[in-house]
Write a structure and sequence with these properties.
With 274 residues, the protein is mainly beta. It is built from three helices and 16 strands. It has two domains: 10-60 and 69-206, STM4215-like (2-Layer Sandwich), CATH 3.30.2000.40; 210-271, no CATH class. Helix content is 11%, strand content 45%. The strands form five sheets. The protein has a six-stranded mixed β-sheet with strand order 3-4-7-10-9-8. A three-stranded antiparallel β-sheet has the order 5-6-11, with no helix packed on it. Strands 12-13-14 form a three-stranded antiparallel β-sheet, with no helix packed on it.
Length: 274
């Protein structure tokens, strides 16, 4: 355990996939006649809500001589990962493996044990300074989650493992910080909590591909120099098949009375030297 370094970027891919769902939202503002006067793309950033609230409260002018706009604009979206939890209800057979030949090399097989199920929690913050902007954002998101939305992720490209990952909307809360003096900025915030059901993978091991199995059988096992009498051999059919091909097997049974045995060093049958 923990002998070889490995990093498959599963959590990172999940964070990127989650954020990309909300990276193309727009807010449209209209005049009293219903004519569109502004169409604004809602910015998206990763970070805790405290960071965004602190930026909103900053003074846009630091000094009279050098005015500097530091407060962020609204509306805005922010999200963060809030935790990982083991999900025992999705546990798989831990001894089963994924197998694949190394690219262009049919003599070596890569293998990897079944993944471990984890739920990754995310929180999305929708911030706006007026109610209509906030509702536009929320109403563009909620219809897609009933209560889940599934994305397809290429989790392990080298092993050709692609999984559908459900993203579940747990709940939505609302907060209006319309308190304080007249100099305070109003911030409407909708908080959406999500759970993604993903899997984490362990290390990949590599081993040679077995293309022939030979078993010698004996009817008697004396202390010295036993004589093989029957040999059972299995080879793939066709013999040129790669490890991840769909192939059959050739089975051969041979009988002997020559008092020879198989020599592992030379790979041939030899008489025992008593």
């Amino acid at each position: 355990m923990l002998t070889d370094n490995f990093y498959h970027e599963i959590v990172r891919k999940t964070v990127v996939a989650f954020g990309s769902l909300f990276n193309n939202l727009y807010v449209v503002r209209k005049d009293s006649k219903g004519k569109v006067i502004q169409r604004m793309k809602v910015p998206l950033a990763y970070g805790p809500k405290q960071k965004f609230l602190a930026r909103i409260d900053e003074d846009p002018t630091r000094s009279a001589s050098s005015p500097r706009k530091t407060a962020i604009t609204l509306p805005r979206l922010g999200f963060e990962m809030v935790g990982l939890t083991y999900d025992s209800t999705r546990k798989l057979n831990r001894v089963q493996k994924f197998k694949k030949t190394r690219g262009g090399d049919d003599k070596n097989m890569m293998s990897q044990y079944q993944p471990v199920p984890y739920n990754i929690g995310f929180t999305l913050y929708a911030m706006a300074k007026n109610s209509d902007d906030a509702l536009q954002i929320v109403e563009q998101i909620l219809p897609y989650f009933q209560p889940d939305y599934t994305v397809t992720l290429n989790l392990r490209p080298t092993m050709d493992i692609v999984r559908d990952v459900p993203i579940i909307l747990n709940d939505v809360t609302y907060e209006d910080s319309y308190e304080g003096d007249f100099s305070s900025r109003r911030v409407l915030m909708y908080t959406l909590n999500f759970t993604t059901k993903n899997y984490l993978y362990g290390p990949v091991t590599s081993q040679k591909v077995i293309k022939s199995v030979q078993v010698d059988q004996y009817s008697d096992m004396p202390v010295n120099t036993p004589k093989r009498e029957q040999r059972y051999t299995v080879t793939p059919n066709p013999t040129s098949a790669d490890a991840d091909d769909d192939f059959g097997f050739n089975e051969t049974t041979s009988f002997f009375q020559d008092a020879k045995n198989f020599d592992e060093e030379s790979g041939t049958d030899k008489l025992n030297q008593d």
